[in-house]
Design goal:
Blueprint lengths: L1 E3 L2 E3 L7 H12 L2 E2 L17 E6 L2 H12 L17 H11 L4 E2 L3 E2 H7 L3 H10 L10 H6 L1 H4 L7 E3 L3 H8 L6 H9 L17 H10 L1 H6 L6
Length: about 220
């Protein structure tokens, strides 16, 4: 969680959060509060604050997460993912193979399995929504009640695919001309190296994501394209 004046930035993994965090801390004197991947529930009283964060095409998100967890750099999920792991094996494991247990800081696979959603959708709700531990674990419930569950306004969620322009829009009142020039010139950091995401999928895997991450796909009009 990054705090800058009236703005609170919530970092959802693999959505250029490290890039934004570095920009805010190094160029806007923002302050890091709580853990790196804090959630809306950690804010306390959000009155008068502008809460914002980012989203990414789900099919692309999984490829980036896969690349981060199966390279020689290492993984935050030892014993589950391994270097050189095949993408389909990786996807099959996270969608159908892990039924229980906590992995990493925030993934409770018993809850993910019960809700019948993808890891990405679970993290999206956990990061930007009400405390997921207080909600019915049901994909149909999430779909029907999205606007009451997600506490970050839709207009304050930037798209990874339109990163620079969306940040300028959300923080329009706080960015100087110099800030904008820096924002446009800075290179992304902590990025995973991989081919175009479409090259990783077959028809079966495309449908897995379409089913499990239906919430994000519908709410943000994402397509496999």
């Amino acid at each position: 969680m990054i705090v800058f004046k009236k703005y609170i930035y919530l970092h959802l993994q693999k959505t250029a959060g490290t890039f934004i965090t570095n920009f805010l801390i190094n160029h806007k004197n923002a302050v890091k509060v709580h853990m790196r991947h804090s959630s809306y529930k950690h804010i306390g009283s959000p009155k008068g604050k502008i809460i914002w964060g980012g989203i990414r095409n789900p099919w692309d998100w999984y490829v980036s997460w896969y690349a981060s967890n199966t390279t020689s750099v290492g993984t935050t999920f030892p014993g589950i993912f391994s270097e050189g792991m095949d993408f389909k094996e990786f996807m099959k494991k996270i969608f159908f193979g892990i039924k229980s247990g906590k992995h990493g800081r925030d993934l409770y696979f018993d809850k993910i399995s019960k809700a019948n959603v993808g890891v990405y959708t679970y993290r999206y709700i956990d990061r930007f929504g009400k405390d997921i531990n207080t909600l019915p674990l049901s994909k149909s419930y999430f779909l029907k009640n999205h606007d009451n569950i997600i506490m970050v306004p839709h207009r304050n969620i930037y798209r990874f695919e339109n990163l620079s322009e969306d940040i300028k829009r959300i923080m329009a009142n706080e960015l100087t001309v110099e800030d904008i020039q820096k924002l446009d010139s800075l290179a992304k950091v902590n990025t995973s190296r991989h081919k175009d995401y479409k090259e990783y999928y077959d028809d079966e895997m495309i449908e897995w994501v379409k089913e499990k991450d239906q919430l994000i796909i519908e709410k943000f009009s994402y397509k496999f394209e």
